[in-house]
Amino acid sequence: MNSKAVSKSRLRVWLLVALAVLVALLVIARLTLAHYTSASYLERRLSAALAAASDSLYQITIGSTHTSLLADRFVVTDLVIKADTLVSERKRKAGTLSRTGYATSIPSLELTGIDRWAMLRGRVSIGSLRIDHPRIDVSLDRHIAAVDPNAPAELPPQALRDLDRDITIGSTRLENGQIHYAEQAIDGVRAGRLHFDDVNLTMSAINNRLPAGATTAPVAIELSALVAGKAKLQATFDYDFAAPELTVSYRGGIGAMDAKAFNSMLVDLEGTEVSGGRLDSAAFDLKVVNDVASGKVETLYHDVNLKLLSKRSHDQSLGDVLKTVLSNTVTNSDNPEKGKPPRVSSIHVRRDTGTPLIKFLWITLRQGLAETLGLQPAASPADKKAAEEKKKSAEKAQAAAEKKTAEKEKEKEKEDKKKAEKKKEDAKKAEKKKEDAKKAEKKRAEERKKDDKKKAEAAEKKSAAAKPPGSQGP
Question: For the residues 179-198, what does the mean pLDDT come to?
Fold first, then answer.
């Protein structure tokens, strides 16, 4: 065998060895990746993190995972997050259960464009995140006392910033989702319910670390859904993830629907039933800067009538009938009214730090609807707190003013008394001076009298001395 043939043979051997090593490394990487991305491993890690964050209240289960090493793709199926019923009951009895509960189920969650090298450096970089057919359940039970009424509600950007590693997600899509909201009033026996179907959301790139030199981190969000399964909701959001307080603008509208669709929420939560009417459209354009929302809400509707009911029995007492008549007299059944322009509500609401994002957005829209109907909108927690602080401040200022006035009056009284005493003292001095002057005048008069007497006696003596001896008077 010549040297050329030997050289080719060795090259083939080295190529085969290199290929074998590469295959072995890929197999090892695949097996390692399969272990760290397996459903059981992820479930254990996520369950531990979730338990630590919720004091063991919530648990997570994962059906399966699939990893594509070459395509940089990772899929999770049948992901479920829900509360542990035993822990929930124990917390309820101990008085430490949060009044707001959550449950989430996601049939499919897909990550693509995963940057493996960034992962090796401790960073998470994902090209896109897609969540398919999720269902999110949120419940609020006001029978349960708030664990800490003053605890601040964490906003999404804050939660991202608190994570211990850099996270970048190029785009996020939520498709064909459902959101179910239930709230039970403190005097209610059943929860009022409202659901949103066919929820679709897209979100632009998010990053939990602000780039060098940047002062804002705008995130664009597009949302569409069916309200109560009836009316199309479309909205766009511009959310500044870098702002320390809530800073977001949002605009959009709701299409036509039967106003009775809201009864599933209103009857049990508010004791109010829409007995007739139709929502023609609603439009909103609002901006929140540093937790203060302002903007416009326009709601067009016709023939809306309300009926007040018992939250317990859903029946009307005589008082409810009278209140219903009064309510329909006070409220506006049409907007616009015949021959008049539409009523547009101007919104100004301050967010309390304990109010979550979604709830605050609903408060701003609810205020616009209430004002359009002619109802007195419920004040937000922040506005209530501001009003209470303003009242306390006014009472404090009034008390301070009254105290200052009393002190001034007391000082004036003291000054007047001092002046009166000085006047009396001056009068005494004047009287004494007058008396002293009289005494001095009397003394001078007596001295003059004595002087005159002495002078007279001296004159008589002198006259007697001047006469010749032996002479007598006639």
Answer: 90
